Amino acid sequence: MIPQTFEYTAPKTLEEALQIIAGGGKPLSGGMSLIPMMKLRLAAPDHLVDLGRLKDLHYIREEGGALHIGATTTHQDVASSALVRGKCPLLAQTAGGVGDPQVRNRGTIGGSVAHADPSADYPAAMQALEAKFVLKGAKSERTVAAADFFLDTFLTALEPGEIVREVIVPVEDGSTGTHYEKVVQKASGFAVVGIAVRISRKAGKIVWARVGVTGLANHAYRATAVEKGLAGTSGGATEVQNAAAVVADGIEANSDLHASAEYRKHLAVVHTIRALLAALARTA
Amino acid sequence: MNINLKINGKTHSDDVEPRLLLIHYLREVVGLTGPHVGCETSLCGACTVECDGKAVKSCTMFAVQADGANVTTIEGLAVDGKLHAMQEAFWNEHGAQCGFCTPGMIMASKQILDRNPHPTDEEIRMGLEGNVCRCTGYQHIVNAVRAAAKAGA
């Protein structure tokens, strides 16, 4: 499988990269989605702009109560980072389950978010974390919340010429328990359904819950009805089951050879219960 | 486009088309046919090589992306005719049957122990998640990695 011909540039600076992208160049990060698409000739960009070598996009740092992660930070680096594991365990757990070890060595957080595959793992965590994305173009920079970023299958709020420059996720406090639970598609490692959960419980009562769902719909979403059903309860088994029952309500579920829409909805409920119970077990 | 990289300790400089995949560069330009072309869709892991110390699927990387990199293929593991401990373990434990997946299996297995010298069986299996074997049923491969860990590979 040989892709169509293209021009390749590995810019030395982000500014240079953004200039070429503004002129129609296609950003390449880890290439774990783009290269297979090019090999299948589902994508045929004229000009690839390799962001993978830009050292100033590869970082994880804590700043102002949040973690800032550069776009070309690999899944492996997110999953193995002591900072992420300690302060945003949901993201570390999610990153550690993407694809397989070889894919995690090359694939990047910015690339995955920008690609917005409806079965990708990261978007579920991004919704649950209420992450923010710094989007940068040659002459612009803006910050967009995850809730406003994922628009449709492979469609995001990115404008032509913009890249995801940075991902911002919160630092969890001691009251929070988190978990990511997915039904894995064995060959690819993608999520048939994936549920990312954060729960804050204080003095035995759930203060708030955040539930991100991937694989089920055309893009990852926050199951706010589940969140509302949990708030104020103690998080007992029946309360969790009742709250999780509505996770797929009103959703037009995906259907493919891995799972029918009906089965996906069933999986979503079952795995929301499991994710909630696992996250609750991690709360104080 | 001209690329310069180190493969198994030797410097290479070649003019390549940007669309040339690393696996085809290694096999057809450099002549290293150890890494295999299996599924071509980055699922099977037969093409796994090490690039700057990390296991990668060379069918899902362009050769130009490896410009300046340090690449190790299965051919680079043995030193002066002496097999790497992981190769030795695959040999002893019968970790290969038809052998097609073996070069990739060994490169992925090496990374498991590079990162964690004493993995549990589950960690070994998770570390081999990106490699498919159609013959062995995996048990002998897991045994091989465990044996290599014991031998201090």
Molecular structure report:
The complex is a heterodimer of chains A (about 280) and B (about 150). Chain A has about 280 residues and is of the alpha+beta class. Chain A contains twelve helices and 14 strands. Chain A has three domains: about 45 residues, Uridine Diphospho-n-acetylenolpyruvylglucosamine Reductase, domain 2 (2-Layer Sandwich), CATH 3.30.43; about 110 residues, Uridine Diphospho-n-acetylenolpyruvylglucosamine Reductase, domain 3, CATH 3.30.465.10; about 100 residues, CO dehydrogenase flavoprotein, C-terminal domain (Enolase-like, domain 1), CATH 3.30.390.50. In chain A, the strands form four sheets. In chain A, strands 4-5-10-6-7 form a five-stranded antiparallel sheet. In chain A, strands 11-12-13-14 form a four-stranded antiparallel sheet, sandwiched between helices. A three-stranded parallel sheet of chain A has the order 1-3-2, with helices on one face. Chain A is globular. Chain A starts with 6 loop residues before the first strand and ends with a helix. The model of chain A has no long low-confidence stretch (mean pLDDT about 95). Chain B has two domains: about 80 residues, Beta-grasp domain (Ubiquitin-like (UB roll), Roll), CATH 3.10.20; about 70 residues, DNA polymerase, domain 1, CATH 1.10.150.120. Helices cover about 35% and strands about 15% of the residues of chain B. Chain B has five helices and five strands; from the N terminus they run ββαβββαααα. The termini of chain B are far apart.
